[in-house]
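name: query_chain
kind: protein
chains: 1
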Amino acid sequence: MSLYLCNPHKYLCYPSRAPSFRIFIDHHRPFSSAKTHLASAQTPITPVPRPVTMPVLAVPIATTTLSAIEQSKRLAAYTAVDKHILPEHKVIGIGSGSTVPYVVERIVAQGRELNKDRVFIPTGFQSKELIVMSNLNLGDVDQFPTIDVTIDGADEVDLDLNCIKGGGACHLREKVLAEAANTFIVVADYRKNAEYLGTNFTPGVPVEVVPFAYAQVLRKLRDVLGSPNATLRMAKAKAGPVVTDNSNFVIDAPFSREIMKDPSTILAKIKMLTGVVEVGLFCDMAQAAYFGNEDGSVTVKRKVESRVVEESILPS
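structure:
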C-alpha cells in the first residue's frame, strides 16, 4: 500500500508509506486551502489538455483609404515585386522604410505555396516584424550570405541610381543585404526621384558612428569634409540621441550640390574617418528603381550595361 502525492499538471506521483489512496492537490489555490480528494488506486488519471495557439496570417497594411502618397508607394512596391520576385527566387532580402510594408503585402499575396520554400532576410527590427507577422520564413544573412533579390526603399535616388538611405537609421544592415544580393531593387514614391542627391531629402547623408567617436567624427565632417551643419540625430520619443539596431549613433551631414554631384567621392572620404561604421550613400548598387506617381503610373529607371534607361508603366 502506498500514498501518492500527484501533480495534476505533470502527472507525476510520489510514493509514501500509507494505505492505498491518492491525494490530489489543487495547485491553483494556496496550499493552506488546497482540497484533498481520495480516490481508488485503480482510478485513471485523465490528462488535462493544454491550449494550442494557432498562427494567424497577418496583413501588414490596414485596409483603410490610402492617401495619394501611400497609393504611389504601394503602386511602386507591387510593380517591383511582380517584376523581380519570381518563383525561382528562394532567398529574399526585405529592406526598411515606409514603402517596404507594401512589398511584404504583395509577396504574401503570391500565396503560401510559393512562399513556403522561401527564406526572407530582414535589414532591421521593422522588416523582421513584418516577416514574422506575415508568417513568412525568417532567415539571417549568416545562414544565407548570397541573396537572390533584395527590395528596399530609399530616401532619394539620383539620375544614376545612386541612393541616400538611412532616414530610418538602418543603412548599415541595408547595405549588407544590398551587397549580398544578386539583384538590388529600390522602391519609392515620386518625391524620391531627383536629379541630384540632396535635392528633396534635405537632412543630409546619414552616417552611423560608434558612440565613443561621434564628437570627433562630427568635428571632421564640419571642419574638414564640408558639412558645417552636420548634427547628431536626436530621438523624438526618448531623451538623447537615436540609437541604431547596432547600438550606434547617427550623424546627419548635409553637403552642397557640387559635392553631391559626385557621391562616390564624398562616400569614400567619410568612410575613411575613424569611428564611422557605415555611410548612407549607396553608389552603383541598384539595378533598378521604381517610383509610384500621383497619376497611377510607375516610373522605372534601370541599368542597361553602363547607362540608365527610364520608362513609364501606365495604369491599366
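note: The longest strand covers residues 181-189.
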